[in-house]
Each structure stands twice: as structure tokens, then as C-alpha cells.
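#help-structures
NK: newbie question, is this the right format to request a structure? protein is DNA primase
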Amino acid sequence: MNAPISPLSEWLESGVDPDLIALNVQTLSGDTPYPYLLYEINAASGRVHPGAQWRWARKHYSHIEHGGWWCSGQDPLNNWQPMYWGCFKPHQPRNAFDPKGKIKPVKYEHPPKTPTRAFFLQVPDHIWAKVAARYGVPIDPEDLELLSGGAGELLSGGAGERKDENLSSAPSPCSPSATPTSSPNQPQFWQWVWDNNIPVIIVEGVKKAGCLLTLGYAAIALPGVTGGVRTKTLQGEKCDPYLIPELQHFATEEREIYICFDRDSKRQTIQNVNREIGKLGRLFTAAKCSVKVINLPGPEKGVDDFVVLKGSDAFSALKNEAQGFQFWLARESWLLTYPASLRLNSRYLGKLPYPESGLACIKAPKGTGKTQALTNLVSQSLSTGDRRVLIITHRIQLGRAICASLGINYIDETRDSAEGKLFGYGLCIDSLH
């Protein structure tokens, strides 16, 4: 078995600042991960007796004893106190069934029987300064005074969410595993972002948020593309979609919201991601936010991969080209999601290798020989008689011209022609009924 990559190396490979890593990522092993992951063990296990709870925990989660890293953040709904909800990436993940019934390793563990939340990472001073410089918004002098004199008190945290008393107490998630070179400015950074309507970028995956924060963008991470919207009430009944409370908190009027989810090549995954972008976009738009969608060009899947490979300037250009949500919606209604199997860089299409079966779609500008490229295929069908040809266009005159060039009758010519509809015919889409 290959040795696991250290958390520091893994996060550095995603382009995350070392000080930010030190403030937010902890390495846990043995019994230590249990109180982090199972702080709501009463609800998770369905047991009341502590002994029964521990037996349940070790039966279902013993793999976390082999170690891994834990990351959480600050809680915007609790005065930016440490959030006990977070994620644990085990060195030896367990297997579980996915929605399609396939067995797959669970890469990231989240507290069970607990609603997923969002990540608001702690931010070192120099990154706060970078965000402030990027948007031209000064840091309040009172915040600067707090930073210089009260960082230690801010680190001590508060009550936060209530942890289950039947599990041993976990160290405060606010306590970093390594000492950063600059003091953490909590909770002022995210409050400053909220107060000044600083634009935020919503990503999937906490390392991606760390990467964009490193570049000087206020990035909020969801645990997955479906994590930002609820479609059921707390009682489990279906309801109209609504933003999770943390995102509602940032859905302030005229705030710029950028959505930057992963790029995938699988058609079904693309549809699922676009559906969730649509939900988020509509809800933020309803809150009078200015919503834009950042489309990663690929082949890199995540924004952290893109930044590491292409650099910060490339991402800045990508962000500047982000599409307004309404334009993105319109574009997605006609955009083909299947990847092209053949790309050409020539004046004319020429002879194309059509498949023997299935649906073949050709996208090319006017005058590149699309009709001519069909000639051999149609001629073969006419000579063998094994298939009839149906030509459908959106204009009558265009249909007549194509049929004439391919040697097929247009629909109003079939009555006076000896061949009639024997070999097929052409017609306008409005006549197809």
C-alpha cells in the first residue's frame, strides 16, 4: 500500500498558502478523529448508552483511526465562532454504495446525520490584506488594532455548536496544528467581507477555497455541488428550493456572487452540475445579487488544478470573462454537452468518417461544405436502396436547394415525380407532423 500524502503536501499541491493551511488543517489519528466527526453521536448512532455508542462508532468508523486530516472553519451564524461541522479525509477510506449501487471509496467523511454546511476558512493577515487590495476596500482601523493586540484572545474561540457530552472532548477546531508566521484575524475577516459587500466565489471542495483565498479572492466552499441548496424542510418534507442559512447570510443586495464548480467530461455529471448551478443562481438572483458563472475550460477538473497549471493571471482573466447568470442559462439551453469526437482546422470539411449507426452532429460555419460532405453518404443510400433519406431544414428555399444538390425530391415534388417518396424527401421543420 502506498504511503498517504501528507496534508501539507496535498494542500500545497492545490496552491494553498502555508499559513492558511496551518490555521485550518489538522492531522488526526487514533481515537482523536472520533469527537471531531461524531460530535452528534446520539443522532448518528441512534443509541443512548455511551458503551453502545462507542461500539457503533468503532464498527462503522474504525478506519479513521488510521489517520487523516480534518478541516472546518468559522460559523457565520454563531458570531464566527469555530464551526464543529467539517470534513475528515481518511488515509484509508471505507467503501460504500453510491446512488447507482456501485461500491466506491468514501473520499471525504462529514459528520453523519448532520446537515452539511459551508466552509469559511480562517485567514492570515497577509491574505486579508491581499483581498482588501484586490477590491480596493480598506481595512477598518479598529480591526487593525484588534489584530495587533487581540489575536490570542480571538484564537481561544467560544462555545460554538454544542458537542455530544458522551464523547471525549475534541480540541478546539480553531487551534492550528502548526504555528503560522502571521496572526489569524478572526472573526474580523469574514465580517469585513460581509460588511463591505465584497464579491464571493462559491466553489465545491475546501482546498479550492483555500487556493482562491491565497490569490486574494473571498471564496466559500461547499462540500459538493448540491450542498448550497435545500429542497426539504427540517422535518424531511419536500419544499421549494432555498439557500442554506450560511449562503442566505451572504445573499445581500447587489453583492457579486461567482459560481465556479468543477468541470467534468461525463454528460450526466455535467447535467447534474448545471442543474445545481441553476438552483443557486436563481435563488441568489431572487435575493437581488449579481450572479455570474465561471466556466473552467478544461482539461483540468478543479479550479485549484487550473490555477496551479495556468497561474493566477489566467484565473483572473477567466473570472473577468464570467458569464452573467441569465446569459449562462440561455447558453445552456442550446449548448451541446457531448464532447466532439473529431475537430478539423481546414477551409472545407471534406469527406467525413460518418459512424455506421447512431446520431452524428456537425457544427461548422456557413460555406464550409456541410451539404457536400453528405453527398457520398446520400449517394450510397440511393444506390443501394437500403435506407430512405429525410432532409429537414428550417427554410423552404434552403431545403429545395439541398434536395436538388443531393438528388432527392422536395416534399411538394413527390406527387409529380416517378420516384415519389421511394428514396426519401426533404421538407421544412414546420411541415413535419
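mod (FA): yep, format's fine, and the C-alpha cells are attached above. The two ends are 62 Å apart (CA to CA).
NK: thank you!
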